[in-house]
Design a protein that fits this description.
Layout (H helix, E strand, L loop, with lengths): L1 H11 L8 H27 L4 H47 L1 H13 L5 H12 L2 H12 L9 H18 L3 H5 L3 H27 L3 H27 L1
Helix pairs in contact: 2-3, 2-7, 2-9, 2-10, 3-4, 3-6, 3-7, 4-5, 4-6, 9-10
Length: 239
């Protein structure tokens, strides 16, 4: 009866937590770099009085190379996390077999940190000792703080970051497609990119739980500083 009531309550309650954190993180990494780096490159080349055609060619080449580099970085990072999890899993599994009493004491210590008394956690410890897989999962999550990674995570991360970089990187280059005069195109690129940075920063703040307006202004400011630095550097070198 109690179990049926618990199931009924769980069915009636819908959790509203945001669970797509890894995907959002990859999108943020890709778009933020995609908007900023090609934007700074285009601004720098404009400062060097390059033509729109040259800037567009260089920009597209940078977007392609950047997408590959960022995607590869995302793949290697996710792969390293998965390899680390497997190493710790094997080590923890060996410890449960070799020193079960010590591992059981660690379970008791973990539970006591949550304010659970010995007479309350002892049955839990005993139950886990009878279920090695559950015991292993418990130690991985609560002792080491590691979640089992998605086996497809590395490829998903690579593609997500690369595509996000391309989408972000093409934004500052769009004006150079339609405006042949670089000095005019750079002004349009600045306006378009800053607008995109504001929208992106607002969305980033919304999804990450930060203040959206503050996040929008910070993101736009970083992009503006990067492009201004590149433009100024080009002018200094040229002059």
């Amino acid at each position: 009866m109690a179990q049926e009531m618990e199931k009924s309550l769980l069915n009636q309650h819908t959790e509203k937590h945001f669970t797509a954190g890894e995907i959002v993180r990859d999108v943020i990494i890709g778009v933020s770099d995609g908007l900023t780096v090609p934007f700074a490159l285009a601004a720098g080349l404009s400062g060097a009085n390059a033509s729109s055609a040259i800037i567009l060619t260089a920009g597209i080449a940078e977007v392609a190379a950047g997408a590959i580099s960022m995607g590869l970085g995302g793949y290697l990072a996710a792969k390293s996390e998965a390899d680390h999890y497997l190493r710790e899993l094997k080590r923890e599994q060996e410890e449960i077999i070799a020193v079960p009493d010590t591992e059981a004491a660690e379970v008791a210590e973990i539970l006591s940190e949550y304010g659970i008394q010995p007479h309350e956690y002892t049955p839990v410890v005993n139950a886990l000792r009878k279920n090695p897989q559950a015991w292993l999962d418990f130690m991985m999550k609560f002792e080491l703080g590691l979640e089992k990674p998605n086996p497809k995570r590395a490829l998903q991360s690579a593609f997500t970051i690369a595509i996000a970089y391309i989408v972000g990187g093409m934004v500052p280059l769009i004006p150079y497609i339609f405006i042949p005069i670089a000095r005019k195109a750079v002004m349009a690129s600045v306006v378009l990119t800053l607008l995109a940075l504001l929208i992106f920063g607002y969305a980033k703040g919304h999804f990450t739980g930060n203040k959206p307006i503050r996040s929008a202004l910070q993101t736009a400011l970083i992009g503006a500083i990067a492009s201004a630095a590149a433009f100024g550097m080009a002018k200094v070198v040229q002059g």
